[in-house]
Amino acid sequence: MGRAPxxxxxxxxxxxxxxxxxxxxxxxxxxxxTGGNWIALPQKxxxxxxxxxxxxxxxxxxxPNIKHGGFSEEEDDIICxxxxxxxxxxxxxxxxxxxxxxxxxxxxxNTRLKKKLLGKQRKEQQAAxxxxxxxxxxxxRSGGGSSMVPNSSxxxxxxxxxxxxxxxxxxxxxxxxxxxxxxxxxxxKLLIKLGGRFSQDDLPIQLHGTSTHHFAxxxxxxxxxxxxxxxxxxxxxxxAFNSTGSATQFAQAQSYVDEAELNVxxxxxxxxxxxxxxxxxxxxxxxxxxxxxxxxxxxxxxNIRIGTSISGTESNFWGxxxxxxxxxxxxxxxxxxxxxxxxxxxxxxxRYHRAN
DNA sequence: AAGAATGCCAACCGCAGTGAC
DNA sequence: TGTCACTGCGGTTGGCATTCT
Length: 356
Known about the structure:
It comes from Juglans regia. Pfam families: Myb_DNA-binding. A hairpin with a 5-residue loop joins strand 1 and strand 2. It is built from 18 helices and 2 strands. The longest helix has 41 residues, at 102-142. A two-stranded antiparallel ribbon has the order 1-2. Helices cover 51% and strands 2% of the residues.
């Protein structure tokens, strides 16, 4: 049985909104609120629009404190980091950028940011190509073994190596002659760069050590591996929050600053089971990798998607992978394990938005 | 200067989740 | 417990603006 249409399509206006329509909608909502029923709203105010259309217009354009265009580099970084972490969950990403809408971010990603990263990837490929030929030449001369597995002597950043997933440590088979980003150093550099400042062309890579509300700090563990801590961002809210739809509410919390709603939200967050870990989150979110082929090659993503490494081991791969992918923004591993910090962290972010 | 190509963004569409009954 | 209506989300499209040839 098909679903009944939400409105009479024949009598509904489509296309761009006129200033009159905007005024009607805006003034009504400002005075009366949405009334919790978007479908009925256009009839109430005499608009020949679908309720969904009204909602979209309000959320994406008429709502107060909406910012359009002019994305800062910090916002770029946040978007990229979150995209790597959680994929195209635009509403969640938007929740981390006050004043931005999911539609705005989605458009920005599709039209500019992705291309920007692609451009960087191409640069990396070219650099990697040059680098690998030099490396090969050196290996020939020294008669050395595998060039793909880094070790402390040839790794520019030996501290980073322990966190490498097997798939990144192993050579990736590829069929065509076009060199892809399967060169370890290139992947590492690219991912580190993606985890750091996306906007800067030149190394050295600058990680977020400065205090922003998203990237508060990162520490160095006893093993020397960098551990990132996101103070305000919950780890993958969609999956981290339970199935009551609270992720959606979290995403909206930035704009709906009604105290009652915040209280409801806090209740949901407080009931959140915090035992989920990164592995589960990423494992259950294979679609989060969609579109990332351009970052590390399709073969890599396929391997990631099916949850197996080149070596055939699955055990620790996701944990390692997530530690690689998550870092700058969404990782609060310790907090997740403790099962409490996420709640505080999530609500801290809400407080932040509310304060703004 | 004009047409074509590309970029950009607002809006639409359809699906999935959720709650009410 | 099942059905239905509503909401929210992500993908896609249409059309205007800008750039290129």
